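Anyone else keep sequences and C-alpha cells together like this?

Example one:
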Amino acid sequence: MTSPSPVRRAIDALRSDTVGGLLLIAAAAIALAWANSPAAPAYEALRSLEFGPESLHLHLPLQAWAADGLLAVFFFIVGNELKQEFVHGELRDPRRAMLPIAAAVCGMLLPAAIYAAVNWNSPATLGGWGIPMATDIAFALAVLAVVGRGLPPALRTFLLTLAVVDDLGAVLVIAVFYTDAIAPAPLAGALAGLALFGFLQRGRGAAAALNASRVPNWVVYLPLAAAVWTLMHAGGVHATIAGVAMGLLMRTGASATETASPSHRVEHLLRPVSAGIALPVFAFLSAGVAFDGIGPVLGDPAAVGIMAGLVAGKLAGILGGSWITTKVTSAHLNPALRWIDIAGVSLLAGIGFTVSLLITELSFTGSPQTLEHAKAGVLLASLTAGLLAAAVLGLRARQARHTP
C-alpha cells in the first residue's frame, strides 16, 4: 500500500484541533512581536492595504478581508459542527443545550455591567460597555485544543455552543448599538439567499435534481455563498454571520444515494483550509496590538473596565450563570464534566480578541489615546484569561489522562 504524500499528510494534520491551534497561536505571537518592534510601521502598512470593488462596498483593508472574509469560513465550520451536535449529538437534549446558552447570556451581561460600573463617572468611556461581552471563539478553541488533551469531548461542545451564542449576541449588539445604519435592501437579499441555500439543502426535488445533474455542487453553492456574504456585508451586519447561518442550514443526513451527508463532506473539505489558511492569516492580521507600557493602561477606566469584565466578569457570569441555571431549571451538567471544567471554560471565554477589538474601534473612533489603551486592555485581559484557563484546564487534563 502506497504511503500518503507529504502534502496529504499535512492536509490530514490540519484537521486536528491541536495543529490548527498551534498555528493560530504562533501567528498571533508573530503579529504581536512585529507590531511592537521597530518594524511596526511595515506591519500597519500591510494590514491597512486596501483592495476590492468599490461598487460593492468591498474596497476594504487586508485586515477587514481577513476578519470578515476568511473568518467566515471558520464560522461556517462552527455553525455546521453545531448543527451536527443539535441534530445527532450532545445538544439533542434540550436540558443540556439550555445550559451553555444560559451561560453565554450571563457571560455577556455581567461583563457589560462590570464595565459600566467602572466607567459610570466617565461619560467619555461609558460607551465601550459592549467590549468585554465578546468571546473570541477561534482563540478559545485553539487554547482548549492545545492544553485540553484528555478532557471529555462534551467540554468542547459546551465551549462551542457558548461561544457561538456569545458571538451572535455580540454581533446583535454591534448592529443595534454600534452601527450607524442598517441597509434593509441588501439585508433582505442576504436573507433571500439564505432561504434559497436552505431550500437547496432540504428541498428533495431541488436537491435530487442538483445531485443528479452533471453540474458540480460547488458551481451552485460557491457563488450563492459569495452573494450571501456580500449582501450581508453591504447590509451593515458583520459578514461572518453569513458563515454561521449557512453552516446551521447544512443537511446532516445522507440520502440513499450518498455515502456521507453534505455536512460531513464539506467539513472534511474545508477544515484544513480554515486551520491552515483562514485562522492563521486572520490571527496574524488582527492580533498585532501595540503596547506602550502598563502604567497609562491601568490609569484608563476604559482599559480597567475591559480587563475586569473579560477576566472576572466572564468567570463569574458563565460559572455562576451555569450553576444557577441547574438549580432553577431542568437543565443539568453533562455527567462527564465537573464544575472545575466549567470554570476553565469560563476563563477561556475571557479571550476577547476579535469582536472585542472591533467594538473597541467602533467605540472610541474620536479618541485615539483611549482607543490604544482599550486595545491594550483587550490584549492584557485575553492573555491573562488564556494563561489562567490553560493552567486550570491543563491540570484537569493531566488528571483525566492519569485517571483509570
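And example two:
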Amino acid sequence: MDAVLLARIQFASTTLFHFIFVPLSIGLALLIAIMQTMYVIKRDEVYLKMTKFWSVFFLINFAVGVVTGIIQEFQFGMNWSTYSRFVGDIFGAPLAVEALLAFFMESTFIGLWVFGWNRLPEKIHLACIWLVSIGTIASAFWILAANSFMHNPVGFIIQNGRAEMNDIIALLTNEKLWVAFPHTVFGSFATGAFFIIGVSAWNMLKKRDVDFFKKSMNISLVLGLISGLGLAFSGHSQATYLMHAQPMKMAAAEGLWEDSGDPAAWTLIANIDVENKESTSRVEIPYLLSYLAFSEFKGKVEGMNTLQARYEEQFGEGNYMPPVKTTFWSFRIMAGTGGVLLLLSLTGLYLSYRKKLVFSTKYLKWLVPAIFLPFIGNSFGWIMSEIGRQPWVVNGLMKTEDAVSPNVSAGQILFSLISFSTIYTLLAIAMVYLFIRVIKQGPHEKRKDDVSASDPFETGGMEHAVK
C-alpha cells in the first residue's frame, strides 16, 4: 500500500480514537463541578453522591485519554516530519502551551481534588474541580488554535522554505478558531450530558436508585438542551465562515458541482455521482443553503467545477476537490445527530416538568443508545472538517501528499498502525469493562466499617469502585 494512504489511515484512526475521550472529559468535568456546587449550596447528600459516582467515570476516561494522546503525538512525529519541519515553528507553539499550561493545570488540580476530600477547605476543594473543568476547555482551545492554522493560515511569513510565526495575536484571533472552538466545546458538553443521561436511563429502567439517577438526568438534560442550541448556532457560524474561507469544502458538503441558483436550496439527501460529477435524486429545502451561507434568504453558492478552474489558475494543474461523498454524508450525519440530541433534550425536560419522566419507559429506552450519538456526531464532524480540506494539509500552502516523512516506508507505517490499533483495542476493552462494572455497582452505600464508605477517593477507594 501507498505510504501516504497508510499515514493518513493511521492519523485518522489515532485521532478518532483519542477524540472519543477528549469531549467526554470536557463534558463530565463540567457536570461534576455543577453537581458539587449544588451540594455546597443545597447541602443535599444526593448531590455529593452524584459528584463522587460520576467522577469515577471521569477519572477512568481521563487516564485512558492521556495514553491515547501520547500515542497520537508519537505517530504524528514519525509519519509527518516534512509537515513538522514546514510549520513546526507555528504548530508547535500552541501545542506546547497546551501541554505546559492547560494540561498541567488539569492534572495538578485533579490531584488536589481527588486527594483533597475532607482535607482542603470546602470552597477551595470546589474551586479545584472548576479549575479542572476550565483546564479541559483551555486544552481544547490551544489544540484548536494549532488545527485552525491548517485550515486558515495566518500570522506567518515564509522564510528559508519554512512557515515562521510573526504574529501570535493573528494566530489566536484566527476566524477559523473562533467558529470551531464553540462548536467543539458544545459538542463536548453534549457528550458528557448524554453519557450521564444514558446511564441514568438504564438504571431508571431497572428501578435502581431512581431518585439519584433522576436528579442526575435532569441536570444533564438542561446541559443537553443548552449544548444542542449552542451546536446549532455555532454550526451556522461555521457555514458562513466556509463560504469565504473554504468555499470548496462548502460546495463538497452540498454535493454542488455547478453554481447554485439564487436563492440556493439546501440538499437534504442526494445520489452523489463522482465519476460523472453530478448529484441526482436531490431532496431539497428551498432558500436554506442561502441562509446557512449568507445569513439571509438570497445568494448564490459557487459549485466545485467553478472553484476547480479557479484553483488551477492559482495553484497549477491538479485535483482540488475533496472526497465529495465522504464530505457530503459526514456533514449530514453530524447535523442529524445534533438535531436528534436537541429533540431528546426537549422531550426529556417536558416529561420531567410533567413529572412523567420516570414512567416514560419508551423514552428511557431511546436514551440508552443515545449515549453514542454525540460520539458519532463529533467523529463525523471531525471527518467532514479534515477530509473537506483535502488535498491540502495546510490550506493553500502544502498538500497532504507532500507532508509525509520521506524516510519512513509503507511497511514501517503498516507495522506501527497494527501495533497502535492493538493497543487501542486493549485500552477500549479495559475502559468498557471498568465502565460496565461501575455502572452495575451503582452509587450504593458501603458498610460503615469500609474504609471507602464515606469517601471513594480515600486510600483504596478508587480500587474498590472498579473491583
